[in-house]
Amino acid sequence: MRINHNIAALNTYRQLNTAATGQSKSMEKLSSGLRINRAGDEAAGLAISEKMRGQIRGLEQAGRNAQDGISMIQTAEGALNETHDILQRMKELATQAANGTNTDSDRAEIQKEVNQLTSEINRIGNTTEFNTQKLLDGGAGANKTALGSNEAAGTAGRGATVTSTQGATAVAATGDLTQADSAIWVGDAATGVAFSLAAGGANNTALTAYNAGTANTAEDFKSLLENLTDASGLVKLGDLVDVNVTDNGIVSFTTKETGVNAKITIANEAGSGAAAASTLTELGLPATLVQTDSFVGVDGTAAVVTGNELDTTTTYGAESNQINADTAFGKKFDVTINGETYNVTIDEASIAAGLTGGATEANLVSTLNDALDRAVDKDGNTVDISGDVVFSASADNEITLTMQAGTVPDDGTTPMLKLSGDYAATLLGGITDGKNTVGGTFTTKFQIGASNGQSFQVDVQDMRSQALNISGTNSGGSHEDVAGAKFTAVTNVTNGTNNDAVEYALDVSTHESATAAIEVLDNAIQSVSAQRSQLGAYQNRLEHTINNLGTSAENLTAAESRIRDVDMAKEMMNQTKNSILSQAAQAMLAQANQQPQGVLQLLR
């Protein structure tokens, strides 16, 4: 018998600890209802179940998002329901006004209600909100892509100067044809003219500036750019961007609003008193079209000097849907092709071409090509540019300038102008013939999934009176879509939030105008119906989305439960077993501790 180590007691003690630990874990699981309370319970199961938990919570939140989206849609659709009722009443009034039994004074009274109802449509559009977001004003800013009420659909640019004619296609010292690959656009009718610079995009064209025959320094270019103004002469580029000049001819522009930089390398050309150099002086500003609206003229300069002057700009006219293409060729310029140099002088007087009225491709192409017919060389010979250097409209509504093999009349002399190859540059994109459109789009996205990219976009068109074409901005102006329809001579429509009249209502003061107004109102009713139908489709889709999200969350929860939750019956069995074992171990430990007492009997 040994007394230093009681092996039986040690074994019993170990078994007691095991039973106590098992009993403790069983009690923890039974009290929490979870099989996995810590990573030590099951490391892999914990990782899998936590991932599932995250997805479940994401699905549940996505379901709530969809429900919020339905609430937003119902808010917009409910407002449009009232707009529908108003338009139906306006059609009723127009039908009444068209009846020959009414006198002019009767129609004047009807006109008053039409005016007020139009203002109420504006109020609904301007004030309908969900969580402070306006739903029916077409975004009224950042999301707005709009055209002025008298412009052709697809007209590109507000207040833009595009030098993509001869000025942007410059003849370099090597005889190569080069073009700037960027543009500057001016826009935002709501807040006034503003120059916006951003990373180059799909709408880029060219804005170039060249030394105009004198020795201009980098400071001269700084002054030139700082003093570029809009058509009113009130807004300068220098007011909106910081222009910085270095000694080596690097000019950088930083917009005061966005902080986007544009770096331009400037080098003076040889000739006309300029410092000797062999590179073309060119400024290219990365920018993008921010907003479309009515045309506004912007002053600019473009000239090339390789011992010459060449000045070409194309400028949108101010606020009148007018495009002016002014081309001035002065003195001479040199063209070097395959080592052979040609001296060319084209019409020392300005070649001017203007297009007023409707800005269509056909009119613009015709006007620009007519201007090319008047080009002559230094000997007075007419250069056949109109056939070989041609403006044309492509199928996708872009007007391009194409340079091919220009020649002079065959008089036995060496040709003075010879340009080989084809060169195309976009002059103006997106001018189309079409009915006028006004208004923008409110766009928002609902996150309807638990993962990245699982979103649902909702677009709501501008539902105010001008967007519905039932009010205008021209006094007594004719309606663009419906012959005979016109607007009132005085402003009598407010934005609905104050008493300031800002628009002209549909005129129902005569039989003819009232009859035409019926068709205008039918079109407006159709537009609202289309938008309400779209909103209804959005809502139905979201309802199915909610059902699907609920099903997914339910099934994923069941899978997570199988991993994470405890089987109460089974765990109760384990707890009972460990409890009995613990009690038995305690009793046996007492017995084991008594065994060494037998040694004392041997000592008696």
UniProtKB/TrEMBL annotation:
Domain Flagellin N-terminal: 3-138
GO terms under cellular component: bacterial-type flagellum; extracellular region
Keyword Hydrolase: no
Pfam families assigned: Flagellin_C, Flagellin_N
Compartments, as annotated in UniProt: Secreted; Bacterial flagellum
Domain Flagellin C-terminal: 518-603
Gene3D superfamilies: 6.10.280.190, f41 fragment of flagellin, C-terminal domain (2.30.220.10), f41 fragment of flagellin, middle domain (2.170.280.10), f41 fragment of flagellin, N-terminal domain (1.20.1330.10), Flagellar protein FliS (1.20.120.340)
One MF term in the entry's GO annotations: structural molecule activity
Main location class: secreted
Keywords, comma-separated and alphabetical: Bacterial flagellum, Secreted
Record family assignment: Belongs to the bacterial flagellin family.
Function, in words: Flagellin is the subunit protein which polymerizes to form the filaments of bacterial flagella.
UniProt protein name: Flagellin
